[in-house]
Hints:
This protein is α/β, with parallel strands linked by helices. It contains 18 helices and 11 strands. Strands 4-5-6-9-10-11 form a 6-stranded parallel β-sheet. Strands 1-2-3 form a 3-stranded parallel β-sheet. Strands 7-8 form a two-stranded antiparallel sheet.
Amino acid sequence: MSEQLSKRIFDELESLVLIDPHTHINPHSAASTTLADIMGYHYYTELAHSAGLAKELIEEPGIDPKEKVGRLVTQLGDLDNTIQLSWLLDICSEFFDFKDEAITESNWEKLYDTAAQKMAQPDWEQQVLKQSGLERVFLTNDFDDPLEGFDTKLYIPCLRTDDLVFHLTKSETRERLGKATQVDVGCANTLREAIGELFEHFTSNGARACAISIPPDFSPVSVTADQVDSAVRSLFAGDDLTSDESKQISQFVFWTLAEYCAEYQLPFDLMIGVNRRVYEAGVYQGQDLYDKRTSLIQYKELFNAFPKVTFPVSVLTSTSNQELVSYSWIFPNVVINGHWWYSNTPAFITFDCKSRLEAVPKTKLIGYYSDMYKLEFALPKFRMYRRVLSNVLASDFVISRNWSEQRAVELGKLVLRGNVETIFGC
């Protein structure tokens, strides 16, 4: 009975057309062109490397895409237990008519060639969007992105601000800021003006969010222009800064972003807790890990200071999930956002999903985002989440709490899509 119930709920949710609220899609090359685009996703390269494939074989300069896939295939047998490999098989089955139960050294070349033929079709991007049930896709745009040459109603811009907050001490970042804004920054007030120009540019081109990924040792606090003016002047004059001065500028820029989010009524996505370059010898994007020193108490001042700014928050671990649940329980402006990175497996999603659904107002839950780099990944990732969500709705709401099946489905639709529309205003 429970399995049949869960399947019926899943079928209802599977038919829902979605808005993906966080991706790394390049709108100028959204879909894959070879199987290497798919298998080059960091999940596969880092898992293959972890299982024994040398980094040099994965990242050899100038390697032919087909050769790269062939090398990765040699390691797939060690990965067939992982949920990530099930995503790959789902993609190959759904999009490339792959019928075998595993990708092996005897069948991968035929799969590669079939995929290449499919991807060469001129409407491949539209096929993937339709088959995946995607209506709109949020991007992650560099702060100096001109936002030209793509449909901003389909691919929704998002102002990504990591470089501004954490890498403004690099001359390259300062040059990019000047070129993007045409503001001659030389003091704290002109730095604020330049950031304002970015918000004007992004919102006039349909941006629906500002976003940042934050390390565990960062604490947002209010820093005024007067407090930081001397350090900003020194920085833009080319002088070296102390670590305290650099930290103060980062805090000033972050606080300024929050102020502009309030002014422009943009949600400020916070992805909290990633520690960069922990495994320094790892493959590209396979070096970063979480850090349990992170606590949302570090964001107390921010959440209190900006009651009109919505903060969709993502955390890396289930150990942080209970804290996030409690903050969203109490703070009206804190929203739970997706299942990020190392928490993006069914076991963790199930535990986190249960605790969120039973403790947080239902209008404050953004169920899932794909975090994808290529469009083909939306289908298997959202399908994984919908399976988990259907099981939780069936067991914890229909069976345990006597909800009607339709009421549970409506909750699922709210979490999957409705809240994305209302929170991001799209």
